[in-house]
Amino acid sequence: MTAPAKISPAALARLSKLGIHHRSELLLHLPLRYEDETHLAPITTVQPGETVQVQGTITHAEITFRPRRTLVCRLQDAGGELYLRFLNFYPSQQKQLAVDSQIRAIGEIRMGYYGLEMVHPKCRAVDIDTPLQTSLTPVYPTTAGLSQVALRKLIANALEVLPIPEHLPKSVFDRLKLADFAESLRLLHSPTADISAHSLANRSHPAWQRIKFDELLAQQLSMRVHHRERSQRTAPALPPRKHHTDALLKNLPFALTKAQRKVCGEIGGDLAKPHPMQRLLLGDVGSGKTVVAALAALQAIENGYQVALMAPTEILAEQHFLKLSEWLAPLGITPVWLSGSLKKKDKKLAAEKIASGETLLAIGTHALFQEQISFHKLGLAIVDEQHKFGVQQRLALHAKGKHSTAVRGEPVEPQAPPSHPLRQAQGERPEEQAKIQEPHQLMMSATPIPRTLAMSYYADLDVSVIDELPPGRTPVITKLVSDTRRDEVFERVRAGCIGGQQAYWVCPLIDESEVLQLQNALETHQLLTDTFPELRIGLVHGKMDSAEKVRVMTAFKAGELQLLVATTVIEVGVDVPNASLMVIDHAERMGLAQLHQLRGRVGRGSAQSLCILLYQKPLSELARTRLKVIFENTDGFAIAQEDLQLRGPGELLGARQSGVAMLRFADIDADEDLLEQARGVADELLHDYPEAARAYLQRWMAKKHDYLHV
Ligand code: ADP
Ligand code: MG
Question: What is the rounded average pLDDT of the residues 340-358?
């Protein structure tokens, strides 16, 4: 019997870089591709572009010095010859490739100076009759210092020494007609030469289907277990008392839309329960999420609990602060403001009000969740534009609530470890968790989640959707204009402003460089001011101090400024209903979600709005597609769907991006059928075969679990 291979500490460190912490995880480290060393190609038959294995005798070898030191060898078989070229080589290689050696070489054929050649082929000295491989050679994802050969050996050893049980219950396995798990793994690690290379490369082979199904099933299980576990944790019950909420509704200058009423009902129902809500409120740009957030906040406040409202940019947080202050003043509620740029003294003052419980509503940026801030009795945390926040910030928020609501006098660990769904299944006593109260969480986003994403990565959250816009909006007209017609655009802006319109001029993103972006905004502002001395033009950017920012935004809102030059700081949330003209400079540099958000700053009033996308040629294929999509669609959902196609789920996931265990093998769009199937089976396992469910989570998620749900 084979013994488990010894793994050196150095190799262990490298394996952990690949996310492999346990021997069994080697099994799921699957090849990126394969090399075919199962047969030899006669040199007369090879074509440039092919990757082939050839064998022959070295008939010539020399080191040339032009253009640089290169080892060139001629390899000859029965029918033809080709050249092997090495720009970097060791003396040992030179020795191996001496004249008369018998060599097997594998590499890509190119047309070179002397004729057919391979550059840096993989070479091995052989005898005429050295047997060929019987299966394809796997090429694994690896990291510096860990060779393919070493990794192959470790994986082959793991396949030999570890048991690979079938976790699907027999009845389910028989019904699904999927390939056997262990056989699928073995096949993918060393497929025989007769297997279609295409079905391996595009992962349509039954063995791949099985692995992808299992991965999706494990993800579904994990999401569901988490969801279920949440209903065993506790949060303050905050039933609707219709005191403050009714007062706000009465004072509003508009009536809620049907969709707003529906989501308010869903949120209100969750808050009333003694378990933490984790709800995502989705609504397209301008659909009116702020007032829904305000109503949720009031329901918590009516129950004597504190609320934190956090926004990703200072401008947006400030705007919420002003709006809510105005709405809540008649109810005798004064929110407190907290942001990183606040003076030390003021920050301390705000922190005291939050800690003492004197203030019931705190509004600000992520500064709200920094260490120094501790809430007296946090009942609800609202995160606007949640996709803009990083996973660390969400972790902080999570921890904050737990501390603050811990029942006094109870021995609560200061750093309660993230709860682990497996623990519940392993029989941890629920009372141990019941001592910790968590705040409810409401996350808001204008980036709709396409169906397949909702079914997979977001399956643990509850989702509410505002699917209609307030009445009286006129859709924004979008125009694509080449940079060569910049003068006409200037003229259009001038005419609009003179005619009483208010306009935004959004400056381009510059290679993610804030300094250049700032410089560009300053220059654009200068240029526009010089060109149109008759217009009142303001400037807002991320590096301004907050008092200055507020001053400019307030002036724009009040109509004192006609044109606002801005960086993408205005991307999210900014609400100035009278603005009806927007120019987005270098629109080709921006992503779809960003363009949609920016465009959503206009079209908020009843006037007809216009959005001009100024672009510069030449356009990349991707940029062209993006501009076409944004030109043709106004519906955020359709745009998000296109975005998913263009970028893959990784980036769309936003805040979850770095936290969620990404699917390694399955593709939620291409494998939608498997995803559907996995959903059904997940329910079945949890209900009828909890042992199997646990085994799946252990196999696929053991390490990633803690990170999954922040
Ligand atoms: P978003 O969903 O993009 O955050 P906001 O909450 O900023 O949207 O709302 C956009 C604008 O619509 C605001 O000026 C808001 O006061 C207004 N609004 C919200 N709900 C309604 C409604 N039911 N009827 C009319 N106007 C509304
Ligand atoms: Mg908003």
Answer: 91
Q: What integer pLDDT is reported at residue 685 of this predicted model?
A: 95
Among 47-51, 261-265, 411-415, 472-476, the range scoring the smallest mean pLDDT is 411-415
Residue 457: name the closest of 614, 661, 263 by CA: 661
* Residue 698, token pair as written in the block: 């252990």
pLDDT at position 401: 57
More confident residue, 409 or 475: 475
> From ligand 1's centre to the CA of 286, what distance in Å?
6
Pairwise pLDDT comparison (542 vs 36), residue with the higher score? 36
Atom 23 of ligand 1 has which residue's CA nearest to it?
Answer: 256
Amino acid type, 407: V
- pLDDT band of residue 411 (cuts 50, 70, 90) is very low
Asked if residues 120 and 127 have their Cβ atoms less than 8 Å apart, the reply is: no
3-class state of residue 533 by DSSP? coil
- The C-alpha atoms of residue 454 and residue 448 are separated, in whole angstroms, by 9
Q: What does the pLDDT read at residue 661?
A: 52
In the chain, list all ranges with CATH 2.40.50.140. Answer: 47-132
How close is the Cα of 254 to the center of ligand 1, in Å? Answer: 9
How far is C-alpha 449 from the chain's CA centre?
A: 12
Q: Which of 396, 309, 308 is nearest to 357 (CA)?
A: 308
- Judged by DSSP in three states, 549 sits in helix
Q: What is the mean pLDDT of the chain?
A: 86
- Which-ligand-closest: CA of 604? 1
Ligand 1 pocket mutation pick from 260, 285, 290, 387 by most atoms within 8 angstroms of CB: 290
Sign for the CA dihedral angle at 203, 206, 211, 213 comes to: positive
Which residue's entry shows tokens 């947080």? 317
Which of the pair, 125 or 458, is modelled with greater confidence? 125
**Would you say 478 and 613 are in contact if contact means Cβ atoms under 8 Å apart?**
yes
Torsion sign over Cα 205, 211, 215, 216: positive
CATH 3.40.50.300 range(s) for the chain read: 476-633
How far is the centre of ligand 2, averaged over its atoms, from the C-alpha of 610 (Å)?
20
Options 3.20.20.80, 3.40.50.2300, 3.40.50.300, 3.90.850.10; CATH of 476-633: 3.40.50.300
Topology of the domain covering 47-132: OB fold (Dihydrolipoamide Acetyltransferase, E2P) (2.40.50)
HSE value, Cβ hemisphere, 13 Å, CA-based, for 74: 9
Q: What is the pLDDT of residue 127?
A: 93
Residue 418 has pLDDT above 80, yes or no: no
Measured distance CA(306)–CA(155) in Å, rounded:
53
- For 703, residues 6+ apart whose C-beta sits below 8 A from its C-beta are 19, 21, 22, 25
